[in-house]
Amino acid sequence: MMQNVHLAPETDEDDLYSGYNDYNPTYDTEDLENDTAFQQAVRTSHGRRHPITAKIPSTAVTRPVATGYGSKTSLASSMGRPMTGAIQDGVTRPMTAVRAAGFTKAALRGSSFDPLGQSRGPAPPLEAKNEDSPEEKIRQLEKKVNELVEESCIANSCGDLKLALEKAKDAGRKERVLVRQREQVTTPENINLDLTYSVLFNLANQYSANEMYTEALNTYQVIVKNKMFSNAGKLKMNMGNIYLKQRNYSKAIKFYRMALDQIPSVHKEMRIKIMQNIGVTFIKTGQYSDAINSFEHIMSMAPNLKAGFNLILSYFAIGDQEKMKKSFQKLIAVPLEIDEDDKYISPSDDPHTNLVIEAIKNDHLRQMERERKAMAEKYIMTAAKLIAPVIETSFAVGYDWCVEVVKASQYVELANDLEINKAITYLRQKDFTQAVDTLKMFEKKDSRVKSAAATNLSFLYYLENEFAQASSYADLAVNSDRYNPSALTNKGNTVFANGDYEKAAEFYKEALRNDSSCTEALYNIGLSYKKLNRLSEALDCFLKLHAILRNSAQVLYQIANVYELMEDPNQAIEWLMQLISVVPTDSRALSKLGELHDSEGDKSQAFQYYYESYRYFPSNIEVIEWLGAYYIDTQFCEKAIQYFERASLIQPTQVKWQLMVASCFRRSGNYQKALDTYKDIHKKFPENVECLRFLVRLCTDIGLKEVQEYATKLKRLEKMKEIREQRIKSGRDGSGGSRGKREGSAGSDASYVDPLGPQVERPKTAAKKRVDEDDFADEELGDDLLPE
């Protein structure tokens, strides 16, 4: 076994390759002709291969090569060197490499082992960046363009549209400089097309946001016409949106269809949105049949709430009752794809589970779900209100059909709201009996619906001045739902109507604690404090309300009125000026401004506002009287005549206006016209002493014969007046004793004040609104805009 193991000689340790240059007869090629194995190999296909150097004859001498076949010898190399690992003279040649890996024996003598070259010291410092090179300038400019685009987008999201547009324009200018520099340094193929696209797209968006539609369309055209931008055809949808804003509906439809053709069918959602835009555009142009085709396709492919609602609108426009019913059923069947409310109720007392549920109860996803559900309810309620009066013979039957459909769907809770809306429709038709009967049906429902119905019933009875019934239903609404701010507000209104302003303020405060956005309660608190003469607290309430409702004319007037009661006319004038900026045609506000300026002694400003008030409402007797008196004071009696003539038309039974007309003629020197006017007045009012006195005076001055007749009538009237006064005086003296006996009972009647009399300021009412925010809007705002 050890016969093939040979140890290397110890005499020469370094000469591992010794003996290979010695001649070995084993590798002699002279006997190859007698080697049968070699000759057989020559006769095979390998032996018939063409020589490598066919054209140039080789100079090497052909020698037979021994294959070792049968002789157990291996082939020699071209240098006559035996192959590594071959057996030579019974000695096995060890395997070796060209060079030692990692170290040599000489290295062991001089230095330590360092394969990584760490002994050479630290690496040389990096070469300094050449900032003046063209490539570096291009790189920095490209970075700056990207930053400008980002800043433009951020400014747009923050609402600063002007700054966003400036940044977008600056990015466009720098991008063009970048393109020119890159063309000078490199080939055009190296231009960054993505950067150019983003710059132009952002610029077009900013133009559109700033309503510069022509510039936006031009920028979009640059992108769309450039064939180097891939998928630029989608931007035609944006161009269609701009044409829609410009009300150029034909071009909008054209670009929407072009965008639809260029968007592949795999982008299903995008195609649905474009088709929805096409349908809306058709509705705006009155092409309801085309709109129906678009929305029907959407409802068959990917039904959604907006498309379903628009489909109902289209069928309503053409009056197709059956299709309206089917479309309403399709709208009801649209899946909401939101979680049930039970998911947010903890099933166990596990604190970890409770924490998770508490965290997700009001997160962004939950808020989105609420918004989607609220939007669905709004569409369904609006659609039901729209089609109920037309799908059946009467709106009541139509509402009943809608209620039945809703009850069989996932929106069961909307059925009660539809019933309440049915009652509101009765109110709009002035059918209060049916409205009350419909609302009374909810008295046996659950607490939420009962509270809503009772709130509306209280509101109705309050408007009819039946405060006992209003208070009863307000109590029912409050007991059903103590946290209903509308119910508490209506309860406060009934108490306010009975004169208990302190208690009314407490109800309003409780309503405000339950719902801080209940502006009716805050407004009515201010009215209560004003009635209690707590003017500073009333002013605080109205100022808070002004911060919420910036352009409310009622709030502005109340603030001015409180300042007037606090004897601060300058502040009152300032707030009234804000009021007429909101309602410039309100004659009462203008007359109040004139009154305040008149009290301050500024007659010219007072005349300006009184005249504006008369121009908008020429039937206000107080304004007419002030203007007539103003012209008389300024010695322009001719101009005062038209105002007193109008006053005589408004109040024909009041003789003083006609006397003022005659007096103006007399003061202006037109005695004949004055005489004729006095004669007309005497015919209408023959017992008027003042008219006869002026007739006697005028006839005397002019020298007319009728003076004796008018003088006789005047004496007779004066004598009759004296006799009448004597009778009244004697009657009073004779009945003095009996009158004294009756003073006890009459005293109680004299102190009686009718609690249901006309209110100068009535508190706002709060009706329960479920469908339309404009329901009973006028009643909720109150009727005390400009009290006298």
Automatic annotation (TrEMBL):
Compositionally biased spans, kind Basic and acidic residues: 761-772
GO molecular function, one term: kinesin binding
Chief location of this protein within or outside the cell: other
First and last residues of every TPR repeat: 233-266, 272-305, 485-518, 519-552, 553-586, 587-620, 621-654
Biological process, per Gene Ontology: inner ear receptor cell stereocilium organization; intraciliary transport; kidney development; non-motile cilium assembly; regulation of cilium assembly
Record's GO cellular component terms: centriole; centrosome; ciliary basal body; ciliary base; ciliary tip; cytosol; intraciliary transport particle B; motile cilium
Protein name as catalogued: Intraflagellar transport protein 88 homolog
Organism of provenance: Oryctolagus cuniculus (Rabbit)
Lineage, broadest ranks: Eukaryota, Metazoa, Chordata, Craniata, Vertebrata
